[in-house]
Amino acid sequence: LFMAILRGAQGVTHEFRRMARYGVLARYIPAFGRVAGRMQFDLFHAYTVDQHSIGVLSNLRRFALARYDHEFPLCSRVMQTLPKPELVYLAGLFHDLGKGRGGDHSELGAVDAEVFCLEHGLDAYDAHLVAWLVRNHLLLSLTAQKRDLNDPDTILGFARSVGDPLHLDCLYLLTVADVRATNPTLWNSWKARLFADLYELTRAALRRGLEAPLDAEALAAATRNTAQGFLTAEGLDDARVAAAWARLSPEHFVRHSADEVLWHTLLLADSSAGADTATVAVRPAPSRGGTAVLVLAPGGGGGFVRAAVALDALGLTVLDARITALADGARLETYVVLEDDGSPLEDPARLEQVRSRIARELAPSGREPQGRAARGQPRHPLRPPPRQARLFQTPTRIAFGDAREGRTVLELVAGDRPGLLSEVGQVFEEFGLRVHAARITTVGERAEDTFYLTGSPLADPAARAQLAATLEQRLTQSVVPSANASPARR
User: Fold this and answer.
1) Is 101 left (phi over 0), alpha (psi -120 to 50) or beta?
2) DSSP code per residue over 349-413
3) Where are the alpha helices (DSSP H) in 95-151?
4) Which residues pair with 414 in a beta bridge?
5) What pLDDT digit, counting tens, does each position of 191-218 carry?
6) How do residues 74-112 score in pLDDT, each as one tens digit?
């Protein structure tokens, strides 16, 4: 009877809400009873675990019903082609039921899920698939938000973890449903684009075969050919295109789409882009899930810090940053931003405000960015975090990942607050480090950011330890306690 309800054509969410409300689900699935009413005390999870689990099931059901196809077309298309959608529903029910027991909730939930499936007549393959989804329900989200999706090795590694298209389809659907049921303010166009990009790139990798990784040279050639067609349509002659592309590395055509290469080339070919001043362009970028800010800056440091200061002053949230060194020493910096409420910038006046503010910040006026001075003393405290976030004490944690293509991955967890990115960039500048890319993730009251860095201090363990200690000290000192906070909360 339970499986018949789960496989029903209509009323699945309705019946499960009734079973949860009247305690039937807690009696039938003891693990569900243990999380009933369990709250998670942070600014990320807005619902109790049992409410969240039913919410995930509800989101998955909407993907399965044709009348909701307009909401998430890709999810609906994938869901409606699954041979056994009840397997994803079971994964959604069990994915968080291991919370509160100590240990890894994903592993604990996977064990419960597999036993439950076998007891309900599912074959070993289906039971294992449900357990795999529960065990790996965070994999796609973490990969999309913390890794460089323009790196073919990232896609190949993720494809190997997934293994086949069915596992990928189910994991993608579960991830979207999970994130949307965690917090009503959490989902935005940036996450939607990231998850869809990772899904599509991985499907392509699986079609090629895991033993036939993407040919970077072939991809670069295809990007060049497509971008050349766009540029010809724009009326840019071959000589100007060749001069602009001579400043770009071969890797540039692998890590950027043809549309982005078009934009970069037009900016590089613009005669107004002088060698001593920065040129700034801003445009909506629905393909990137936000608004793109492009900066062509002369050589030298400080650009990342100054741009972060300007974006913070404008009340924008930075989601992604990519900094490319050109052959002549200049830098091409791309930032993807959203408004503070998670919406993209669309009003032309707002776009111009952003462009002019960043251009003023990057102008060679001789003033330092509004972070800390090189001597390490505060120029001024950062603005305090929001009132709710000040009730949480998030310790700063720094971890170094393996160097890839000469770049070292630094993962930072700290209390989120305005100006955090510029403060971190100032420390990098003091240590002589160059930021090549950054992935910015806010999880409730926590910032979980990933930076791709180069610089000689990263090769020395002692210098790494000093960098980590300095970041921890600066980010701790820069917190401004609330005047009304009790001493225990300051």
Assistant:
1) alpha
2) HHHHHHHHHHHHHHS---PPPSSB-TTS-BSSPPPPPPTTGGG-----EEEE---BTTBEEEEEE
3) 105-119, 124-135, 139-146
4) 447
5) 899 999 999 999 999 998 888 776 778 8
6) 999 999 999 999 999 999 999 999 998 888 999 999 999
pLDDT band, residue 373 (cuts 50/70/90): very low
Tokens 């462009």 correspond to: 355
Nearest to 13 by CA among 53, 45, 46: 53
The pLDDT tens digits of the residues spanning 107-144 come to 999 999 999 999 999 999 999 999 999 999 999 999 99
- Strand 434-439 with 442-443, pairing: unpaired
Q: Are strands 397-400 and 331-339 parallel, antiparallel or unpaired?
A: unpaired
CA distances from 394 to 44, 265, 371, 382, 405 (A): 13, 43, 21, 16, 32
Specify whether the CB–CB gap between 247 and 327 falls below 8 A: yes
**Any idea of the CA torsion for 441, 260, 204, 63, to the nearest 10 degrees?**
60
Place of tokens 């971008």: 227
For the purposes of burial, counting CB atoms within 10 Å of the CB of 468, is it exposed (0-12), middle (13-18) or buried (19 or more)? middle
- Note the pTM of the prediction, 2 decimals: 0.80
Nearest CA to 428 out of 405, 407, 447, 451 is that of 451
